[in-house]
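Hi R.,

Here's the input for the 2-acetamido-2-deoxy-beta-D-glucopyranose complex you asked about:
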Amino acid sequence: MTPASTRRLLAYCLPFLALSLFLSTELAYVNYRISGANRQSQIDTTDLNAHRTTNYFPWESISPTDELIWTDCYSNQQCARLKVPLDYSRPDGASAAIALIRTPSAVPHDSPRYRGPVLINPGGPGGSGVDTVVAAGPLLSTIIGPEFDIIGFDPRGASKPFPLHFTRIQTSEPTTTNAGVARSTPRISFFATRAERQLWSVEGASIASVNSSADALARGWARGIVLGQRAGREDDESLRFMTTDHTARDMLRIMQAHGREKLQYWGFSYGSILGATFAAMFPQHVGRLVIDGVMDAEDYYATKWSKNLFDADKTWMSFIDGCVAAGPTACALYAPTAAEILAKVDKIYASLRARPIPVHTETASGLIDWTTVRSVIFASLYSPYAFFSTGARILADLYQGNGTSLFEILQQQPAFQCACDPAEYQFERLPEALFGLLCNDGARISPEYEDVVTHYERLRETSSWADVWAFLRMPCLDWPDFPKNHFQGPFVANTSFPLLLVGNTLDPVTPLWAAKKMSEGFTGSVVLAQDSPGHCSIASVSLCTFKYIRQYFLDGILPEPGTVCPVDIPLFPPTPSTDPGFADAVEDQAQVRFVDALSAADRNLFEAAKELVELSPIRFPRGI
Ligand SMILES: *[C@@H]1O[C@H](CO)[C@@H](O)[C@H](O)[C@H]1NC(C)=O
Ligand SMILES: *[C@@H]1O[C@H](CO)[C@@H](O)[C@H](O)[C@H]1NC(C)=O
Ligand SMILES: *[C@@H]1O[C@H](CO)[C@@H](O)[C@H](O)[C@H]1NC(C)=O
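And here is the predicted structure with 2-acetamido-2-deoxy-beta-D-glucopyranose in place:
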């Protein structure tokens, strides 16, 4: 396929994949591909049908087996469901099924060049590795190398990212796809029906910031208590086995089912907790292990979530300063100084506080309010290279009192549908799995409201974005009293191969500090820094970073300690496209010259990395 047709295919795959897409966030966020409505109208029926065939696979047609049995699925990929013990302390008891997908290596498995499987974890916790590999397996394969199989798996209990619910009346026919199907069982569910879950979540969105209203923090606290109790009531006795400890054991099983004793792995965001947990539990089973967007494991297992935002304010300032530097053509919110741009944003906030904007488009009606904009700006910090240009345009529109461009982007999420046939959704991944995993993993926390207030006040000392982060641990306030006998550290080991840790210099939720801290516990490990804003290395394009990652997987060579990789794409492209989300559609000349000067191999790598950036979704915190 030519690059142009690949891009076109992605362009219309994405709205459908949107619910299930990608990646690497310890928050559950809905993933929107930003693409203009005009793109969708390019889809003709043939394309649509082709798309459905490519992105549909009846997982129920595979029975879980003890051995790996691969079936062709999606486009040129293979799927399997592996049977594992639900409870590893009772290996002959009930079983769980782990869904797997692989983008096969381009090298035959009997060739001496073949290097085995690399497992991918996209974060979450509970994010779907299957969806990641459906969408991005071939791109990851280009980066890591054709010698490897790229394996995605849905962790036990796997969740889908949260839908962002907001007041919206859908007037068009919604599109049905099976995006969002979860194939690993059992799964974590707090609600008996989809409608019940939907009704519950509407208020959650309205308090996604604990500053949304005077009582938002208190309501978040109360809702957290209800959710935790709900988790206990709906538990079919499997909930307690949804832990990172068990998922690490599942990864070992997956490798052993491949006939291998050592793990090869690339984990993003929460995937760093999973990777580090594996490395600490099974140091002799580390083959190659990359953790990218590293969290502080001690903070995570203490259910504090208090050390994520150290660089969030600086990441936000990279938007402001980048806009000043980019000039009025590249940045629609441009003003000559940072102070003036910040003043514009404050004016937008104040105006929306006073009066949300009512919006109508051809297909939907709703409103844009302070909480939505607050969440969207925070979300954009995850994917600056995919979103800052568009974000600047949205803010410029809001500054004029126009909420249409933001509303149109938010609308790309498929509308809620009640199931006519409940079986239709039997494999659907549920948003509550995020909380299932993090509350099971983490230490018990005090359910007292006063302690929640104190925790929030401390969090505010770390960042001005504390308001959109504080709700994360609230479902753990009155969590079922399961024994905490799973692995929770320490994160120290002499591993059979040294770890590679990757961190961006300005990551809004996984500060480079945490990668350096984690590295201290793992003998011989090295931290590779990427000089960019955004969450995880794949938020930007850096040939330097990706060559180090490939070299590590292929030759086992680590970068020199202290290495900092530059990135190869601009934060605000000089000539942004008018089509939201396709800021690269009008190529900029400096970039064209840069790419032309690359070798064929580097150009391949560059294009793959760039497509990954474009796939990288915007993630919206959504409350509880
Ligand atoms: C949230 O509320 C606190 C306390 O009223 C205030 O100090 C802080 O600036 C607010 N943050 C935002 C983002 O509005
Ligand atoms: C609001 O912005 C959209 C483009 O995003 C434009 O089409 C529309 O005309 C604008 N509405 C008003 C009232 O200016
Ligand atoms: C790693 O090996 C060194 C030297 O053999 C030893 O001193 C240290 O205790 C080991 N660390 C762990 C966590 O096993």
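One thing worth noting: The pocket of 2-acetamido-2-deoxy-beta-D-glucopyranose (ligand 3) is lined by residues 492-494, 523 (CB under 6 Å).

Cheers,
M.
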